[in-house]
Amino acid sequence: xxxxxxxxxxxxxxxxxxxxxxxxxxxxxxxxxxxxxxxxxxxxxxxxxxxxxxxxxxxxxxxxxxxxxxxxxxxxxxxxxxxxxxxxxxxxxxxxxxxxxxxxxxxxxxxxxxxxxxxxxxxxxxx
Length: 127
Description:
Layout: E1 2-7, E2 10-13, E3 18-26, E4 34-39, E5 46-51, E6 58-60, E7 68-73, E8 78-83, E9 92-98, E10 116-117, E11 121-126
């Protein structure tokens, strides 16, 4: 019932910036907690950032705190991830996720917390 589509990935030099977008479509609920995850070659999928149903609360992985900013525009049903000061180690496929549950409102940081996933967008940071 929920479709997530990521966009905004690409190639950027170290120190540069990108903004990822995640467009959501759902029939019966207009907002829900969401998050960003990433998976680099040879590594497990890891939590990047999470945001509550209304955007009031956010959570970040230590590796991105201070460089990345998660936000959402519920009127547009879109979540964003602004990535500044990018490093080569940020290179990964970035996935948008949503926790679609009747009581879901807060922030979540584990893959098992999320019900729906996008197909991912590639972010490559060159040295």
